[in-house]
Amino acid sequence: MVSLPDVVASNARIPTTLPRNLVVVFAGATTGIGEATLKAFVKYAVAPRIYFLARSPESANRVAEECKLTNPQANFTIIKVDLSTVMQTDRACDEIKAKEKHVNLVVTSAGEVRLDLSPEGLHIALAAAFYTRIRIAQNLLPLLVAASKSSTLARVVNVAGGTKEGQIFTDDLPGLKRPLYRIRGHIISMTTLAMETLSEQAPGVAFVHDYPGTVMTPLVDGVPGWVGICLRLVAFILGGLLARWVCVPIEECGERHVFLGTSAKYPPKQGAAVGVPTLGDVKATNGVDGAKNSGMYSVAWDCEDREKVVEILDGLRKKGTKELVWDHVNGEFERIKAGKGVDE
Ligand SMILES: NC(=O)c1ccc[n+]([C@@H]2O[C@H](COP(=O)([O-])OP(=O)(O)OC[C@H]3O[C@@H](n4cnc5c(N)ncnc54)[C@H](OP(=O)(O)O)[C@@H]3O)[C@@H](O)[C@H]2O)c1
């Protein structure tokens, strides 16, 4: 486990070890883990340029104004986008590409617990939590690669379920046939494998997929029906009665995600964009192929990898599931761009 003092000590070196004017994209930072990460990040970064992707510009503006109280030099561009749609996500990325030649860091954390279909025919819970996150990284990959050649930071952090990988249902890659609770490991493995494919395309860029732990946020506030009642009851028990033992405090979670986004504990496979050099006991972690300097990391709330992940992913790779996942994701993007429904 990386201790919180080690996390904070590394983050405190951001102003002296990373360049000023880092270009950073946050998608899903109006509440919860994204908001805590953004607020922690602006404490340390010198004059960052932040692109803030949000469906509610008012909420994004509130967070940006609060950030500016800590760091008046932080520059914000708010882009209104419903991250459950691929088409809107593409337009948001186009706006960034029109303004920037490089992007140093992408932090994706948008998601909500919903059970219906998106207008584009995707499982709506997976639309923002999986498909458009991969799309953002894919769209911005040339800018991340540019950062990897000119800067000391080029990284993607995806806040979801790293280290909780499970079997993939190849008969139902879109996850439409089984209840949400059964496809958790499925979608987490799809995420890790899709990110691994991106990391192979851009070996100078580091990719981190993490599980944040149990963090009290508004994630389950709006979930309808009995599912919502049950989830809120669990949240009440965990967050109210057992918080001290079970939950990661939101400020700690924010600091840990800044660490994931900047520490040289998670270096790319190649190149010099390694981030803040590690100190003391903090050592480079193993990637999803079991190697150091892997460029693709699946880590838990404590910022460390778990050995079992390598074995699970190895089994999936041997069956050709990584390629299946990549073809599926890109097939969905192509279908949506062509304006076709699921069965067309
Ligand atoms: N909290 C936990 O214990 C926990 C544990 C494991 C994994 N996670 C994962 O971590 C991620 C972040 O969770 P969180 O707890 O921080 O949740 P949260 O507080 O509910 O934050 C979710 C963020 O996503 C945004 N969002 C959701 N749907 C969107 C859409 N269609 N378009 C644009 N923005 C959208 C929300 O914006 P609005 O303000 O507009 O709603 C909000 O900024 C999620 O993927 C969650 O599954 C969380």
TrEMBL record:
Gene3D superfamilies: NAD(P)-binding Rossmann-like Domain
InterPro entries, A to Z: NAD(P)-bd_dom_sf, SDR_fam, Sec_Metab_Biosynth_Oxidored
Tagged with keyword Oxidoreductase: yes
Gene Ontology molecular function, alphabetical: oxidoreductase activity
Alphabetical UniProt keywords: Oxidoreductase
Protein name per UniProt: Short-chain dehydrogenases/reductase
Species the sequence originates in: Clohesyomyces aquaticus
